[in-house]
Structures are given as C-alpha cells and as structure tokens.
Amino acid sequence: MTRSVEIYSTMLCPFCYRAKNLLERKGVQYQEIDVMLSPGKRREMIERSGGRTSVPQIFVDGTYVGNCDEIYELEAKGKLTGILEGTSAG
Predict the structure, then answer these.
(1) Domain extents for the chain?
(2) CATH number for the 5-85 domain, one of 3.40.30.10, 1.10.10.10, 3.40.50.2020, 3.40.50.1820?
(3) Which of 27, 42, 56, 80 could hold 35 in an S-S bridge, CB 3.0 to 4.6 Å?
(4) 1 vs 61, which has greater pLDDT?
(5) E strands of 1-90, at which residues?
C-alpha cells in the first residue's frame, strides 16, 4: 500500500520534474505543493526539511525523505519502494 507522499516544488524546477517522473514511474500518487504560488508553504517546507531551501523536498507519511538526488539514490540502492510502501524505514 502506497503511503501519503508530498513534494514541495516549483513549476520551473527541472529537478522537481525529475523527482515527480520517478514517483510517477513507480505508480505513486503524490500531493504537489507549489512554493512559488504560496510563499507560506516555502517557509513550511524549510521548517519540515530541517532548513533546506531548495526544491524539491519530498516527504512520505510526514517524514522527510530527501530531495531529487536523494530519492534517486534510494532507488539505486533498492530502498525507495520499501519506503513508499511502508515496508522499510530506509
């Protein structure tokens, strides 16, 4: 069962497109939060991600998972599916 996935992004970010593409290829539905359209959401993202200011920032069930490079690294290590399905802590 896929967990709740949130991705903070902007429309102009190539890393955001890359991260969303990976999630979509894995069949994951996600809530996209555009921080350009809602400046308050950018502050929220920074607080939730431990001070990270770049996009994308990705959360699974409210837990910070990483940015684009980090989720691709998890995928390369075979850990991303388990995180998304709730069968692995990473």
Answers:
(1) 5-85
(2) 3.40.30.10
(3) 42
(4) 61
(5) 5-9, 31-34, 57-60, 63-66
Q: What share of the chain is helix, strand, coil (3-state, %, to 5)?
A: 40, 20, 40
pLDDT, tens digit (0-9, with 9 covering 90-100), for 26-82: 999 999 999 999 989 999 999 999 999 999 999 999 999 999 999 999 999 999 999
Letter for the amino acid at 50? G
- Give 47's DSSP letter: H
Amino acid occupying residue 38: S
Alpha-carbon distance of 32 to 23, in angstroms, equals 12
